[in-house]
Every structure is written in C-alpha cells, then in structure tokens.
Amino acid sequence: MWHIIVTSTPQLIEAGLKYTIPISVISFILGLVLALVTALIRISTKKGAFWILKGIARFYVWLFRSTPLLVQLFIVYFGLPYLKIAGLFPNGIQMSPVTAGILTFSLNTGAYCAETIRGAILSIPNGQWEAAYSIGMTRTTVLRRIILPQAVRVSLPPLANSFIGLVKDTSLAASITIVEMFEVSQQIAAQNYQPLVMYCLVAALYAVVCTALSWLQGYLEKVTSRYVTTSN
C-alpha cells in the first residue's frame, strides 16, 4: 500500500497543479465577474428596456441553480456540438474539454455567487444610501466607495465556501475527459486494482487543499474585519 501511495502521489499532485487548481481559479475569477455584473443588474432601479436585462439575469440564475452541474457539463461538451446554426455554427458548437469545463464551472459559479453578492449588497442599511445621496454622490459612486467595500466583507465567507466547493466539483471534469486528479486516480486504480487506496488518497489530497483554503479564508476574514467594531 505504501508503495502505491509513494508512486501515485506525485502523479496526482501533477494533475492537480496542471488542471484542478488552474481550472478552479480561472473559473472562479470569471464566475465572480459574471456574478458581480448579474447582481448589479438585478438590484438596478432602472426602468424601461432595462427590465429585459433583469429578466435575462433572473433566468440565468434560476437555470444554473436549478439543474445539476454534471448535466450542465454534459450539455456544454456533448450536447452543443449537435446545435447546428447555419451561417454561425454549421458544424455545431465544439470546444475542447478544458474550455467546456471552464465555461460550465464559470457559469455555475456565477449563478450562485450572484445571489451571494446581491444579498450582501442588500444587507447594507438603506440609511447609508440616503446619507451618500444627501451629499451629492451618484449611485455609481455610492456603490463603488461605500456599498461594495462593505459587501465584500459580508460576502467573503460564502464566496470562499463557493470556491472551496468549486475545487471539489472539478472532480466532475473527469466525466468530460479532463485528466485532473480524480481522473488520474481512476486511471491508476485501473492499473493496480486498488481502487480503495487510490480513492482514499485522492480524497486526502482534496482535503489538504480545502483545509489550506479554509485557513486562507479565516485570515482574509480577519483582515477585512479589522476595522469593524463589535459589542458584547
């Protein structure tokens, strides 16, 4: 067993550094950008045609929160190649496994994080908006200088949890042939006929990564809360 662990661990770590971590980081960054845009659209008070954008944003969040991530991966990677549009995609929408994985993880993360950011913004008391308006600030300035900095602190714990969850969810990328840590563990298990050892080993590696991220989350929470006064 120890021989298997010693020989397999470097391969799993290499797969993690090559695919698991980069896919997680890139997908989370893109998802955060999408989430912020979606959240701002949903809390906007603009009228008229802007309601169409709000409807699209609401539908996007509903769609990706209401369907399983594995199904979303299959639709993007296996299903879209059959979506043939004359003049645009005559051969269907085809993409590499990594591109499909990042796209799907980004869209899924964006939908969940959008609600987190929206809730954090709405949690800021209305009095702060009114006070800022009273000294002549525009809505954009209020968001940038007063509301969003506070919303970052409020949303940090759930956003960090979403990132940790995303790191674990990348194991689903094996289903679309991405050779990340879980896929490598399956390949090695097929060779040495020790699935229990391999699956426990890859689980331990995921646990190490997620524990490190949890420590980082705690540190960031302390940093962002250092100016917050607490009362007993």
TrEMBL record:
Membrane topology field: Multi-pass membrane protein
Transmembrane segments: 20-41, 62-80, 196-216
Annotated Gene Ontology cellular component terms: ATP-binding cassette (ABC) transporter complex
Residues in ABC transmembrane type-1 domain copies: 17-214
Keywords assigned: Amino-acid transport, Cell membrane, Membrane, Transmembrane, Transmembrane helix, Transport
Alphabetized PROSITE patterns for the sequence: ABC_TM1 (PS50928)
Localization (cell): Cell membrane
A GO molecular-function descriptor: L-cystine transmembrane transporter activity
Gene3D superfamilies assigned: MetI-like (1.10.3720.10)
Family: Belongs to the binding-protein-dependent transport system permease family.
NCBIfam families: HEQRo_perm_3TM
PANTHER family, sorted: L-CYSTINE TRANSPORT SYSTEM PERMEASE PROTEIN TCYL (PTHR30614:SF0), MEMBRANE COMPONENT OF AMINO ACID ABC TRANSPORTER (PTHR30614)
Protein name per the record: ABC superfamily ATP binding cassette transporter, membrane protein
